[in-house]
Amino acid sequence: MKKLSFALLAATAALLSTPAFAAPQISPQSIIVNPVPAEVGVSVWTDRDPGGNGNPTYRPGERIRLYVRTTQDAYVYLFNVDPNGKVDLILPNRYSGGDNFVRAGVTKMFPPENAGFTFDIAAPYGENKVLALASRTPLNIDDIARFQNDQAGGFAQVTVSTQTGLAQALSIVVNPVPQNSWITDTARYTVAPGGRPVAQTGSIRVESSPAGADVYLDGRLIGRTPLNIENVAVGRHDLRVVMSGYSEYRTSVDVGRNSTQTLRATLSRGSVNQGTGSLSVTSNVDRAEIFLNDRRAGRVPTTFRNLNPGIYRVRVTAPGYRDFYTTVEIRPGETSDLRVTLRR
């Protein structure tokens, strides 16, 4: 089997100042962000961080798998930027299964099974980033990466470098398409020297009655029941089980090292409880973290449903920005919209 070494993405350069309102934003944390709420959502994560909110450690020689999921049919462009600013385009590629069209609600894995190659970790050491850009329409990225005319396999030749360079190039690429038709998400991990680390992870088994319910771990959609969630970081995690026509199931799960927690959720019939309300939260900073009543609830953009009526304390936070605090009143049968502008 052919081995390909990837030391995936990191931020090492100072970034440009915030552009004008509604223009794509160059972000130290997320590379490039669409400041306008989009009609499509995308999530990207590594095999050691199913929740997508952590920064797992990999050692040289270990293998890594990446996962992408969209809320609408979309074309996904997956980039790597290593600590030295080298940019790689993972998707699309010319290997089997390298098409970048992703169906709504389908989790796509890279590399796929029987791909004929693996992603093997290599130096340089440091924090890495993986950028997923999802668009409802195909994008012309010829000024960023090109395949040879007769290229039958492999990856494209990338012509940009550094996180800032990639962000600037992508801001031009997305300019011709409707602004609400694209969105990004970023995953992180660290490449560290030394041998294989002792895994500080466990797993969660989620079952539901009825089956086929959506499972959210720490605010991120992971899959549908019955579901095994592997490589979950040790500690407490928020978990939600959601199905249309049924009341939402919420709980916290304590994950232990090398152990499996099994959760069986019995969903109650009755679509949306008329005695509850919803809260929709968006922000100018992609993946900003949301706390409801001092409890971690998820990341923007998201909508919290089946909330009991009352006053909720809301905190939105992101590295490099001042925390945002407010209170929101939830009324039965209504959705409250909270649009947060974080400032440095």
UniProtKB/TrEMBL annotation:
Domain of life: Bacteria
Domain PEGA positions: 202-269, 277-343
Domain DUF4384 residue range list: 57-138
Molecular functions per Gene Ontology: carbohydrate binding
Keywords: Signal
Segment forming the signal sequence: 1-22
Listed name of the protein: PEGA domain-containing protein
Lineage of source species: Bacteria, Thermotogati, Deinococcota, Deinococci, Deinococcales
